[in-house]
Amino acid sequence: MRALLSVWDKTGLVELARGLHELGWELVASGGTATALADAGLPVTAVEDVTGSPEMLGGRVKTLHPAIHGGILADRSKPAHLADLEAQGIAPVDLVVCNLYPFRSRPSIEMIDVGGPTMVRAAAKNHGSVGVLVDPADYAPLLDELRGEGRLSDGTRLRLARAAFAHTAAYDAAIVGWFDEGATDLPPTVHLALERAGDLRYGENPHQEAARYRVTGAPSFWDEVVQHGGMALSYLNLVDADAAWQLVHDLGSPAPAAVIVKHANPCGVALADEVTAAYDRAFECDPMSAFGGIVALNRPVDEDLAAEMVANPKADVVIAPSWSEGALALFGAKRKNTRLLSAPPRPLDRLHLRPVADGWLVQQPYRVGAEREGWRVVSTARPSDEQWTDLELAWRVCAHVTSNAIVLAANGMAVGIGAGQQNRVDPGELAVRKAAGRAKGGACASDAFFPFRDGLDMVAAAGVAAVVEPGGSMRDDEVIAAADEHGIALVFTGERQFRH
Question: What is the pTM (predicted TM-score) of this model?
Answer without folding.
Answer: 0.85
